[in-house]
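Translate structure to sequence.
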């Protein structure tokens, strides 16, 4: 039984989606958590761990939120693969599994341009409410959150729904606005579009698809006689479960034709996609996150942006379009770019590259934990007084989907705290503009 989202209404101007304030606080599950959290990049947002407040001797002085857009329709490219696989299933002469009978009268009705769905707008609004509840004390009428977004419609919509949620949570006392939209055809630190020489994850995901997809395709072919599905079709069919569930706000019938193990293997497909797409497994992946990291360092230290990679130097040089005096910053982006930023920072580094033939149970690069729909990385700057081995001064900690990160690269302590100076020092790759990697994007 699923909650009604009747209070969601969509403003079709292409500017933003609006939501009624009566929406439920708890997001409905579209499947058991163990399955729903195996949908890789299509997983609905969830807190990986409960939020950990800072130690009592520390107070938060600045917050930097990097957030992915909310749940969306499939992109046009994904739609092509989905429709091809569905057509094969519907061509079957006989279904021996009753769970496939829905295909006799099934019509694909999802949008195909990757636009935000109402549930995705709801996710973004809820994130804005959480941000106010957690960090509202940092806000004043003269110090509202500074909000930016990459220019994709779904990203802009997510940003405006976040500001709406923030406003609602404050009883409309504080009403932040989207101040800067970064064009994805120009320099943009919130999109991975500035490295034409970067490779893709296709070799790795194709290898894994052939391994995990073949048995699933064989099983479905035995249940849908004459469908002739291939291994490649499986990675197009499984996403119909999360896409339709989010779009229609009820469990898709496609969810029932796959097992928990199928979804777990699809999760690894997503892990490989992000790791070898813009993460550590892609030689020119981490450099695509350098521009954002240098903007983050500028905010944390209150100094001008020093970057020669993806930043828009005109915008970042102006206190109007890149102020350094705010307490809360919120940037809205894409999952591929967030993966690049994690890698540029040094988060979720793996002892060994992910093996395209065998998932490691010890891996921490798990896409549903890193970049689900409405994912967020939060960098907090804190002022701490002396305690134990901790000196008085400025510190930094990072949370990804509420999970506190250990920050080994700057000797993070048991509370996940690094001194601000140590954190800045640890970001040599970004401060050196990618150590020559950015030039390799074009040469």
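Result:
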């Amino acid at each position: 039984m699923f909650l009604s989202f009747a209070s969601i209404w969509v403003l079709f101007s292409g500017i933003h989606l609006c939501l009624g304030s009566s929406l439920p606080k708890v997001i409905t599950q579209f499947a058991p958590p163990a399955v729903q959290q195996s949908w890789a990049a299509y997983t609905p947002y969830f807190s990986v761990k409960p939020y950990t407040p800072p130690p009592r001797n520390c107070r938060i002085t600045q917050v930097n939120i990097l957030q992915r857009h909310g749940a969306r329709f499939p992109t046009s490219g994904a739609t092509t693969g989905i429709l091809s696989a569905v057509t094969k299933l519907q061509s079957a002469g006989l279904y021996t599994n009753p769970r496939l009978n829905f295909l006799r009268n099934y019509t694909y009705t999802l949008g195909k341009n990757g636009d935000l769905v109402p549930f995705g707008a709801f996710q973004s609004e809820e994130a804005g409410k959480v941000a106010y509840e957690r960090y509202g004390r940092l806000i004043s009428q003269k110090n509202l959150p500074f909000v930016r977004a990459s220019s994709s419609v779904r990203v802009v919509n997510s940003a405006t729904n976040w500001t709406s949620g923030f406003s609602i949570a404050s009883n409309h006392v504080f009403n932040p606005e989207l101040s800067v939209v970064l064009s994805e055809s120009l320099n943009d630190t919130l999109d991975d579009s500035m490295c034409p020489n970067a490779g893709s994850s296709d070799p790795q995901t194709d290898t894994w698809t052939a391994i995990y997809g073949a048995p699933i395709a064989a099983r479905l072919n035995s249940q849908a006689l004459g469908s002739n599905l291939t291994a490649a079709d499986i990675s197009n069919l499984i996403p119909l479960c999360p896409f339709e569930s989010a779009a229609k706000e009820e469990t898709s019938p496609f969810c029932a034709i796959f097992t928990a193990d199928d979804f777990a293997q699809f999760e690894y497909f997503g892990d490989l996609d992000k790791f070898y797409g813009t993460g550590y497994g892609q030689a020119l992946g981490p450099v695509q996150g350098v521009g954002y990291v240098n903007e983050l360092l500028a905010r944390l230290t209150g100094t001008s942006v020093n970057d020669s990679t993806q930043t828009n130097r005109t915008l970042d040089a102006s206190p109007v379009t890149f102020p350094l005096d705010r307490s809360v910053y919120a940037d809205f982006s894409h999952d591929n770019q967030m993966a690049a930023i994690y890698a540029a920072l040094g988060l979720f580094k793996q002892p060994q590259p992910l093996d395209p033939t065998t998932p490691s149970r010890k891996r921490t690069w798990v896409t549903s934990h890193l970049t689900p729909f409405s994912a967020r990385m939060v960098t907090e700057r804190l002022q701490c007084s002396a305690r134990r081995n901790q000196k008085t001064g400025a510190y930094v900690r990072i949370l990804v989907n509420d999970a506190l990160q250990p920050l080994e690269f700057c000797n993070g302590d048991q509370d996940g705290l690094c001194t601000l100076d140590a954190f800045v020092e640890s970001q040599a790759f970004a401060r050196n503009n990618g150590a020559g990697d950015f030039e390799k994007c074009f040469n």
